Amino acid sequence: MSAGDFESRWLSPDVNSVWTRFLQVTHRLEHHIDRRLQEQHGITHTQYEILLRLADSDERAMRMSDLADSIVTAKSAVTYQINKLSEMGLVSRKKCGRDNRGIWVHLTEDGSARLEQAAPCILSLVRELFLDAISCDQAAELDKLLGTWSDNLDAHDRNPVAYPGHPGAEAA
Amino acid sequence: MSAGDFESRWLSPDVNSVWTRFLQVTHRLEHHIDRRLQEQHGITHTQYEILLRLADSDERAMRMSDLADSIVTAKSAVTYQINKLSEMGLVSRKKCGRDNRGIWVHLTEDGSARLEQAAPCILSLVRELFLDAISCDQAAELDKLLGTWSDNLDAHDRNPVAYPGHPGAEAA
DNA sequence: ATAGGATTGTTCGAATTCGAACCAGCCGCC
DNA sequence: GGCGGCTGGTTCGAATTCGAACAATCCTAT
Q1: Contact (CB, 8 A) for B4 and B18
Q2: Which residue's CA shows the smallest distance to C1' of D19?
Q3: What SMART domains would the database entry show (chains A, B) (predicted)?
Q4: Using the CB atom, is residue B85 less than 7 Å from strand C?
Q5: CB pair distance less than 8 Å for A22 and B130
Q6: pLDDT at B7
Q7: CB nearest to B25's CB, from A1, A138, A149
């Protein structure tokens, strides 16, 4: 689509509403979960996610950057959170022999316990709010959609600026 | 879905992956759009959203709290952003005669221009990343899903703590 | 009219995020 | 061996968000 395409200037109402509601729902979901988690278990959703990824991974440990990729935040944010979790004793840093600059973040016993304690609360929330609305077919469909979106993002990330179809790329 | 999982502590792998990828994709989408918008048009995604909602509304004006609801953030965040946008001259505050504590935020000419200038960039992004992946049927399906999720959230908001099925919620 | 309660918007401090700059260790290549 | 480039983590300052507390205004019922 070209820059001067009047018709495509704005989204058609129905499509526009899907996008808008998508944004609203995702924000609301995040807020809701975050709030509940903080009130009832004293950790943030991002912290929960970190613990979860650690628990799910082999050796219950992960590298900082893998963690950053996994929860989709800046590396510095991960450093910040790992510092906090480390102070809380839920996580511990260990050097990795192979790569001397790499750091392995391990889930501690306390961390594991805290995760197991918080999980039911969050999982029931996710089920009630998110999953119960989805039939199996829809789940498969949604999964496919997510895959495509993810691929699209990959493509854009691989080719950050010079992508066909968006005006203003090098204009000022 | 997953009626039989009612008691299980963790989500079944497939369902779990849907949820995880959902979180990842939404985060990546936000980041991507935000970054592009800042690089090329000097405004945040939230700021863009505010301008957009204003442009879409009758009179090109909105109350602060409606704005807050609309973009799903805390009122204080809206105040912050409106201050910024106001400094930029994209928006202006006006008293509302009817309700003396209410404030109407108006889109200025500059604001309108800035929005029109930024819109193609973002819309093409939304299309490429998000919409092009969806067929009409899928769009309808997704819309329905969003509706259900939204309703679920409404229900939870209406009845914040005492909701069946999540442990640790001893009502007052 | 008026007290009590809800609603509106702002202010404030704390928490979190981001990106850029930076340092250190790895790797390929001369 | 050593030089440049890459990668992994941290530090830093700026931006943004949140929730709680507050002030002003509206509304309802008495």
Answers
A1: no
A2: B74
A3: HTH_MARR
A4: no
A5: yes
A6: 57
A7: A149
Q: What is the pLDDT of residues B98-107, one digit of tens each?
A: 899 999 999 9
Q: What is the pLDDT of residue B130?
A: 95
- Tell me if B31 sits within 8 A of A160, measured CB to CB: no
Count of CB contacts below 8 A, A vs B?
Answer: 193
Residue A73 CA and nucleotide D11 C1' are separated, in Å, by 17
Round to whole Å and give the CA distance between A68 and A53.
11
Residue B78: how many other CB atoms lie within 10 Å: 23
* pLDDT score of A83: 98
State the pTM of this model.
0.90
The candidate with the shortest Cα–Cα distance to B131, out of A30, A164, A132, A10, is A10
**What digits encode the pLDDT tens for the residues B25-61?**
999 999 999 999 999 999 999 999 999 999 999 999 9
Beta bridge partners of B94: B104
Domains of chain B with bracketed CATH: 14-133 (1.10.10.10)
